[in-house]
Amino acid sequence: MGIQQALLQKLGETLVVKFRASIEPVKASGRTAASIHAVATDTTLEVLAHRSIGALEYGRKPTSSGAPKGNPSLFEAIKEWALIRGIISNINDRKQLGIVYAITKKIHNEGWKSKLNAPLQGVADGLNYDVLLREIVAYQVTVYESAIIKELKALK
After folding, report:
1. CA distance 96 to 144
2. CA distance 126 to 121
3. N- or C-end of the chain: fewer Cβ atoms within 10 A?
4. Which ranges of 23-92 does DSSP label H, i.e. alpha helix?
5. Exposed, middle or buried by CB within 10 Å (0-12, 13-18, 19+), for 22?
6. Kindly report the CA angle at 125 between 119 and 126, in degrees rounded to 5?
């Protein structure tokens, strides 16, 4: 890995931490947050995540007629969410599954509005480039310092 790629990867890791923190208030299983990761080359940096993260930023529109079933289905996803959040405690209890069904039906019909206020865009807008550049420079100094020390030891 080249120095430029390492620097961009370090920046990406910083952004990943910030993005994960921004969605923490609505965390259920943690899979969406865990899917956020950085991919760097010598000239680019991408911070990627599972496509479901868009719902945390923009909400979810009502299900359109003839829409393909998701994997997992919305019902299965809501059932897992309800278990994790303690809304239900027994997935075999028909009464509790009725709650999951009602939530699922409401989301299918009306969509869902995120309770977060543009968490991902907020991170991007709130970036302090001076702080990020200082972190990158400090990392770069450490890398160069290590290389210089290694070369000096080799001269002995």
Report:
1. 60
2. 8
3. C
4. 31-35, 53-58, 74-84
5. buried
6. 85
